[in-house]
Here is the input.
Amino acid sequence: MFHPLELPDRQLRKLSLYVEIRDTYHDLYNSEATERKENAVRRDRLNTLYDDFIRQFGNLNNPKNIDLIRMDNDNRTILSLERYKDGQALKADIFDHPVAFNKNELTHVDTSEEALAASLNKYGNVNLEYMARLTDKTEDALLDDLKGRVFFNPLIKGYEIADKFIAGNVISKAEMIEDYIATPSFSFHNFPSFHRSHPKKGGFPRFPAVSSPVFPSGF
Here is the structure.
């Protein structure tokens, strides 16, 4: 048979206030993560509840509070709402600003070039889906704008900027791309890097021999 926990009135008030803090924290975090916009009303509520708690009972991590709080399975998350510096309890960042998203994150750019720069900065690669959201352009329109800047790499089945496409072991890449061109699924229509200068009869253009100078003489 289940027996409800019997606590003195002060402990019940403490537990009740803790539960309000916990639930308000989750409401605030989840709403900002979902809506991607600041929720000032819930943040003010969280600050008010926390200030009430420490005024009545001391800090969350105070030894006289911690045993009761640890009865909650979510206690670690809520105890982390306090961070300590030089022995002093400080409020976590969520009391001041959103932590579920970056308020300064780009949501729109005007050009495909700006979208490419944003994608490289955020993801380190060409993320066409993200770039399309930033510009309200289709992926085909982006690729058309960025001809000569990004190329399809069949080895990763995705797009890369030119500098990355030709970096690394180019001889090995050339051999693998030759094999890819020979497959039935290959189409120049789906391989933008070959639109302007695809290989003639005789195969894939050859890279210089490994022993050939990379820089012109006199460099």
Remarks:
- The longest strand covers residues 82-85.
- DSSP finds nine helices and four strands in the chain.
- Residues 75 and 176 are 54 Å apart (CA to CA).
- The two ends are 88 Å apart (CA to CA).
